[in-house]
Write a sequence for this structure.
């Protein structure tokens, strides 16, 4: 019994020791389960291997005791035999790691959670595929053809089928379609028109549910925040619904309340949207042309942010700030274009309380506008145009979803902007390029417009510059001569960008879209409003605000300070350079495109090559020594050269294993 326990303990210790030593020799982590298994094999094969080695050397004789002179030889041969068994065990570990690399064991709780999420995702995925197949657009996901799909013979039929599928798929997909409907730089007709018809209405939530969301998000009873809340919503959409309310101080407001299940559904659908977009881009030409995977990634991250109404509150405050700056510059137009205030004490992540804007959307105000005088309508259009253009070009913060539904004609005859879930932000340098492009476009200078446009976009390699400049010039010329008031110079310019497969940054795509949708709003106010002609006289004023003497002086001061700081460092750097020359210690640091230091690659490659050559040489020398034999006889048939060969070969073999292991574990 004691012997059995002793053997078991020795086996476990040996297994752990083998695993530890293997990890140290290989220089990388090796899975402990397989290390222990190999260690046990080494332990149980070690004794038979040592006995076999002694028999081959003629030193073993069970009937006679070990001569005193051969004790150390016996011990050395047994140790050498065990070392080779260990080396072969390490080789088995290397082979297993190469075929089945070690992965960390997952937490059981995480496994259960992942399985539940996978089950939920799979069920939702199958539901979406069923909806798609029912409407005949399964080709977007699996690339095949079916009887139903064959009936969708035209682009219009396929576009309408896609819209029907999106409407049935739920909130996330409806929002995705709405975003795609504004990306004229990505989506061609007739898909663009079909997506713009997506439904935005939804069933209303029960008042008890809405009340629970409000109280949970604000952390207070609803009566402590509002004097009154209308249980009947003003409007209900797929993500939220809006209620009239009155604050305790008597201020009339609207309360935007997010649906309780909106975030969970969006987060569950985000992974599915990415997978479907990847499959559609990989398997269909339409998906590749639309670059739908990149669009989907940007959409899902943006949509999750839009579910946090604290971000919309921040956006609203930025828009209010730009309107205040614009009104200060021209007090005569103060109050003509406004935005609602946000009440932070009555707002949170899922609840947003803002001023009540009494009025109707421009799209629903045609009859009322007909009662306005031509001068009043023209003043509204001119003020709205100058406000939006100044927001984009001077301040770089603008409404990124400015369609006639988000511009209200208020009861007092002024305009109110609403819904700031999507706000575009453009940095100053790009605003300057945008201003240059608009100046060139408004003056029909196709060469300057093309050059300015190339500073804004990301042109691909192999772009046909002459063809691109020609198409830009055609758009400018035709738009300056158009009299039917249909379309927009900005939408046609985006069409040219898309046709030449030029990538347009998202924020600039939002700016172009805002220009185009602004033109639509202006033509609701004034049927024949000439945005191109009316915007040109504004440009000198906007340029003065963008390139003011005060700002230019500040820029020069900043550049001077930076240049002075660099000049102050020059003597130190020059002294360090000269000292390095004198000492012969100047070095060169090489960096890759991603900024990583690659100057040590040559040294590492040289070291690996040298290690490989040394290991190969050791193995070759070992083979020669073992085969050739010779040297003094140590006992039995064991010669000195054979033992040296076995020892040298062992180290060479382990060196080769280490190199092989590094090859398999090198980052790719």
């Amino acid at each position: 019994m004691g012997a059995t326990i002793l053997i078991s303990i020795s086996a476990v210790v040996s297994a752990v020791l083998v695993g530890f030593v293997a990890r140290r020799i290989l220089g990388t982590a090796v899975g402990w389960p397989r290390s222990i298994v190999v260690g046990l094999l080494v332990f149980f094969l070690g004794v038979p291997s040592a006995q076999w080695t002694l028999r081959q050397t003629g030193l073993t004789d069970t009937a006679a005791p070990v001569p005193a002179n051969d004790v150390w030889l016996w011990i050395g041969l047994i140790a050498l035999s065990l070392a080779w068994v260990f080396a072969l065990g390490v080789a088995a570990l290397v082979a297993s790691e190469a075929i089945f690399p070690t992965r960390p064991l997952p937490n059981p709780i995480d496994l259960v959670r992942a399985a539940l999420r996978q089950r939920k995702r799979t069920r939702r995925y199958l539901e979406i595929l069923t909806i798609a197949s029912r409407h005949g657009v399964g080709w977007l996901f699996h690339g095949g053809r079916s009887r139903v799909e064959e009936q969708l013979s035209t682009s219009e039929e396929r576009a309408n089928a896609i819209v029907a599928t999106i409407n049935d798929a739920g909130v996330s997909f409806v929002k995705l379609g709405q975003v795609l409907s504004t990306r004229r730089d990505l989506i061609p007709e007739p898909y663009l028109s079909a997506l713009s018809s997506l439904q935005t209405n939804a069933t209303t939530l029960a008042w008890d549910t809405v009340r629970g969301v409000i109280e949970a998000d604000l952390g207070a009873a609803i009566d402590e925040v509002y004097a009154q809340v209308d249980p009947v919503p003003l409007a209900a959409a797929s993500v939220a619904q809006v209620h009239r309310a009155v604050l305790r101080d008597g201020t009339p407001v609207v309360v935007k309340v997010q649906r309780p299940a909106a975030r969970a559904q969006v987060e569950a659908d985000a992974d599915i949207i990415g997978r479907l977009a990847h499959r559609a881009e990989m398997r269909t030409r339409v998906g590749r042309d639309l670059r739908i995977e990149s669009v989907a990634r940007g959409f899902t991250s943006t949509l999750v942010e839009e579910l946090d109404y604290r971000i919309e509150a921040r956006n609203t405050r930025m828009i209010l700030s730009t309107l205040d700056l614009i009104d200060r510059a021209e007090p005569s137009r103060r109050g003509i274009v406004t935005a609602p205030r946000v009440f932070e004490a009555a707002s949170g992540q899922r609840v947003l309380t803002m001023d009540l804007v009494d009025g109707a959307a421009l799209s629903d105000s045609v009859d009322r506008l007909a009662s306005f005088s031509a001068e009043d309508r023209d003043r509204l259009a001119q003020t709205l145009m100058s406000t939006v253009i100044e927001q984009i070009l001077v301040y770089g913060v603008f409404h990124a979803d400015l369609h006639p539904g988000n511009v209200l004609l208020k009861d007092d005859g002024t305009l109110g902007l609403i819904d700031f879930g999507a706000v575009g932000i453009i940095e100053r340098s790009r605003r300057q390029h945008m201003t240059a492009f608009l100046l060139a476009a408004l003056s029909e200078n196709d060469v300057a417009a093309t050059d300015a446009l190339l500073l804004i976009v990301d042109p691909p390699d192999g772009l046909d510059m002459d063809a691109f400049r020609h198409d830009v010039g055609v758009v400018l010329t035709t738009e300056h001569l158009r009299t039917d008031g249909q379309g927009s110079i900005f939408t046609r310019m985006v069409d040219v960008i898309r046709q030449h497969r030029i990538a347009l940054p998202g924020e600039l795509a939002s700016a172009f879209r805002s220009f185009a949708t602004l033109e639509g709003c202006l033509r609701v106010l004034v049927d024949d409003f000439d945005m191109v002609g009316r915007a040109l006289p504004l440009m000198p004023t906007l340029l003065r605000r963008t390139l003011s003497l005060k700002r230019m002086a500040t820029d020069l001061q900043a550049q001077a300070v930076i240049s002075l700081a660099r000049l102050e460092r020059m003597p130190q750097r020059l002294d360090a350079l000269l000292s390095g020359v004198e000492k012969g210690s100047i070095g060169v640091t090489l960096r890759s495109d991603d900024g990583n230091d690659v100057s040590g690659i040559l040294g590492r490659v040289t070291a690996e090559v040298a290690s490989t050559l040394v290991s190969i040489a050791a193995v070759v020398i070992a083979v020669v020594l073992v085969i050739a034999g010779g040297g003094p006889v140590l006992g039995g048939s064991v010669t000195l050269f054979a033992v040296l060969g076995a020892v040298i070969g062992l180290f060479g073999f382990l060196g080769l294993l280490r190199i092989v292991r590094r090859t398999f574990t090198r980052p790719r």
Residues 30 and 126 are 39 Å apart (CA to CA). The first helix runs from residue 2 to 26.
